[in-house]
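Protein 1 of 2
SEQ + STRUCT:
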Amino acid sequence: MPKKRLTDQQVEEILDSLSGMEKAEPRPFFYTRLQARMANEADNSAWGRTISLISRPAVAFSVVVLFLLMNGYFLFNKFGQQPSPAEETYQALAVEYSEMNSPFYEVNQETP
């Protein structure tokens, strides 16, 4: 099927019809309403509220400080305790075992 070619007159008519066009603009307050709707959708969901709470700098900073305080408490609380008798036995066995082990390439020659 052959393509239909436009004549010069038709091309001029099409170009002239575009000359009176103006830029399309949204209705007044469109962006304000759009932003309000987006904020409303984010605020209504449970995840949106949770994320907005966690992302606050005061909450994030408080969680980090709490974590560091708990770490320090458990660290220093562990060092302040005396080892139990079972732990002392395990430590003594570990020292004795490490003294007994020697690499296979190290030959201990006993003198007669």
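Protein 2 of 2
SEQ + STRUCT:
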Amino acid sequence: MSNLKKQPPQNNRLLLKYLGFGMQLMLALALMVFLGLKSDKWLSFKYPLLVWILPLLVILVAIYQAIKDTSKKSNV
């Protein structure tokens, strides 16, 4: 019975960790789209190149970070 009481705090901690990761990802994507729009306008590109490239880089970094975080072996 003591196992059941110890599990939820660890699950809540894990939930908060990935909730924070998701919020960071959404904020980074929004910021990169905004910066891409401003940069494309400033550089006078014919096509919205940086609007596509900057968020793609954020997504690639997020995938790398998620794989790195989930592949760690736990000491439990």
